[in-house]
Amino acid sequence: VDYTLRRAVSKMAELNPETIIQLLKQQKSIINGGKTGSLEFRLQQLQALKRSVQQHEREIIQALHQDLRKPEFEAYSTEIGYLYDSIGYVMKNLHKWMKPDRVRNPLVHFGSRSYIYSEPYGSTLIIGPFNYPFMLVMDPLVGAIAAGNCAVIKPSEYTPHVSAVISKLISECFDESYVRVIQGGQETTSTLLQAPFDMVFFTGSVRVGKIVMKAAAEHLTPVVLELGGKSPCIVDKNVNLDVAAQRIVWGKYLNTGQTCVAPDYVLVHKDVRAQLIAKMKEYIISFYGTDSQLSPDYGRIVNHAHWQRLNGLLEGAVVAAGGQTDREDLYIAPTLLDGVNWSDKVMEDEIFGPILPVLEYHNLDQVIEAVNSRPKPLALYLFTNDKQIEQRIMSTVSFGGGCVNDTIMHLVSPYLPFGGVGSSGMGAYHGRHSFDAFSHKKSVLNRPTRINPSFLFPPYNAKKLGL
Ligand code: NAD
């Protein structure tokens, strides 16, 4: 069923390049007319967006259930409630961020005034993934509006019910030449990427991230890439194992493991491996019951292709918990794999599903060497009570962001920039960082004319050189 729907969405939205060129012209005239420039306008739009989401809350929750079987609590907290918080924070602080930032001068600019202006890029393109299909296009949109841009949103074709609600909500809320949703699949995105947008904000896989960046290079369009990868979760022996097990199980099986910052695999000290696995099993049962297929709090895999891919990772694996699958229901149980080696298939690519491999280590050097020899992760989680170990990991391992003694929660803070490094992405957003991500920083030096030293100007004679 989802395949047919996806095809329908792709077909419906086959995009004529001329349409997008016309739309960009309209957006340019809006920007040049100064309409999006004022604080009042931006606040009004953000307020309108919030109101519209509030009006469509039930539909959004229902669509998330249809596309991903997202439990209502998760749908609300991770996609809707989170967005309200984000809008509220931006609205409260925007007047400060919009002010030109006055900075100091070096001696050579004595008497001058120097400012950094935040100006909108102009037309921005926001491309979203399927896993948090609502929040991951709406939250970037908050940044785009706050910074005074126009936007085109391309939601995921894998979540057609959510994309339809987004389209409806946005068209009710905004003038379509200001913010517009264009639905469709790969071909539509390719067509959009050929157009000369002023900035592209992409959230999705590393593979498509490269396609986006190549296309953007054609117009020298700046990009923010929010990508993925394998995020390690390191568990030291000096730790509260019970809390560690609880927080890892929660972070991994939230949204059925389809979370970009989910712990991809666990690296646990050999002395506590068996205990950690036993405790994680207990938490799986306490969260989702003995049969998670019956749990209203456990979701499903987005489609058959992903289900098939995940099922393949279970072949020949040592299953310590879960392992049950049901193709028709797109179900895969919360699964723990034991006895995993780095050469196993499950350790090749980002898992992006409810399968958690557990590998043991003997000393921290092995951990650092293993993580540093692979692509830089989007997230890293470290469970330890040992300050020295914490220091060592922080100073020797590069990763986008993460937590000590928790999972996922770093991305909830508007004070922490969220983004990847290396192949897990470039650029960051959330809170003020969203405003900055969608702004060009224009540096302006304003020099007085009263003071006009002549030593800079030719002819550069011997006297000027002090000879
Ligand atoms: P995806 O890369 O397959 O798709 C993302 C978007 O790209 C979709 O809108 C899709 O239509 C478009 N697309 C797909 N193929 C394309 C092509 N060949 N040319 C042009 N456009 C194309 O990603 P997904 O499967 O929807 O999402 C899962 C991935 O996203 C995971 O890797 C995950 O880690 C990552 N992700 C990252 C973040 C983050 O914030 N860093 C958040 C969520 C997901």
Automatic annotation (TrEMBL):
InterPro entries from the UniProt entry: Ald_DH/histidinol_DH, Ald_DH_C, Ald_DH_CS_CYS, Ald_DH_CS_GLU, Ald_DH_N, Aldehyde_DH_dom, Aldehyde_DH_NAD(P)
Source taxon at top rank: Bacteria
Pfam families per UniProt: Aldedh
Coiled coil feature spans: 39-66
Gene Ontology MF terms: aldehyde dehydrogenase (NAD+) activity
SUPFAM superfamilies, alphabetized: ALDH-like (SSF53720)
Record-annotated Aldehyde dehydrogenase domain positions: 7-444
Keyword RNA-binding found: no
Name used for this protein in its record: Aldehyde dehydrogenase
Source organism per UniProt: Paenibacillus lutimineralis
